[in-house]
Amino acid sequence: MARKQAYAQRLNLAMENGFTDTGNQIYRRFSFSVQPEAEIEQLYLVAEAITSLCSLELGEATLTENSYLRPSPAN
């Protein structure tokens, strides 16, 4: 068996920043390094808190995770 061991995570926010001449949404993107142990609910609350400080609306919040793939310890 194998397991994953997270070593880095980034919280990515795409803020709505208007429209192009053809009507496509423009996004302004922000990225924050977060602790791999952070709970999903905590990360979403952080995204909402950051959004409340901005004049832009949150388009989407995503999480990018980097993990090592390791063999499971022998029993």
Describe it:
Residues 4-69 form the DUF1659 domain. The chain has 75 residues and is α+β, with helices and mostly antiparallel strands. It has one domain. It is built from one helix and three strands, in the order E-E-H-E. The mean pLDDT is 94.
Describe the structure concisely for a colleague.
This is DUF1659 domain-containing protein. The protein has 75 residues and is an alpha+beta fold.
Mean pLDDT: 94
Classify the oligomer: single chain
- Strand tally is 3
The chain-level structural class is alpha+beta
Q: Any idea what the radius of gyration is?
A: 17 Å
Tally the helices: 1
What is the spatial order of strands in the main beta sheet? 2-1-3
Largest sheet: 3 strands, antiparallel
The fraction of residues in strands falls at over 45%
Helix content: 10-25%
Compute the separation of the termini in Å.
11 Å
- Unreliable stretches (pLDDT < 50, length at least 5) are none
Number of domains: 1
**Succession of helices and strands:** EEHE
Specify the overall morphology.
Answer: elongated
Write the layout of secondary structure elements.
Elements: E1 2-19, E2 25-34, H1 40-52, E3 57-71
Antiparallel strand pairs: 1-2, 1-3
Question: Which tags fit this structure?
Answer:
elongated, DUF1659, alpha+beta, 75 residues, 3-stranded antiparallel sheet, 3 strands, DUF1659 domain-containing protein, 57% strand, 1 helix
